[in-house]
C-alpha cells in the first residue's frame, strides 16, 4: 500500500522558518557566505561555497558557536 504524498502547508513552512534550529542554520550560512567573500577577495577569485564551508568549519565554527551560546545566555 502506497503512502499518500503529503503536501507542505503554509503553516508547516511558517513553523520551520520560526524554529530556532532553522534560525541557527540561517545564521551559520550567512557567516559561511561572509567567509567565502573575504577569502575570495584575498585569493583574487571565487573560491566556491564548498571550499569556504570546509575552511570555515575547520577554523571558525567552534568559536562562532561558543560566541552565539554566550550571547543567548545573557
Q: How many helices? A: 4
Estimated share of beta-strand residues: under 5%
Mean pLDDT: 88
Largest sheet: none
Q: What general outline do the C-alpha atoms trace?
A: extended
**Extended strand count:** 0
> What's the gyration radius in Å?
17 Å
Helix/strand class: mainly alpha
What's the end-to-end separation, in Å?
A: 52 Å
Low-confidence stretches: none
Question: What is the H/E order?
Answer: HHHH
Descriptive notes:
- Residues 31-59 form the DUF4032 domain.
- This is DUF4032 domain-containing protein.
- It holds the Pfam family DUF4032.
- InterPro entries: DUF4032.
- It comes from Ruficoccus amylovorans.
- With 74 residues, the protein is mainly alpha-helical.
- The protein has one domain (18-73).
- It is 77% helix and 0% strand.
- It has helices at 10-18, 20-43, 49-59, 61-73.
- The chain is extended and about 55 Å long.
- The relative contact order is 0.09.
- The model has no long low-confidence stretch (mean pLDDT 88).
What does this entry show, briefly?
With about 70 residues, the chain is mainly alpha-helical. It has helices at about 10-20, 20-45, 50-60, 60-74. It comes from Ruficoccus amylovorans.
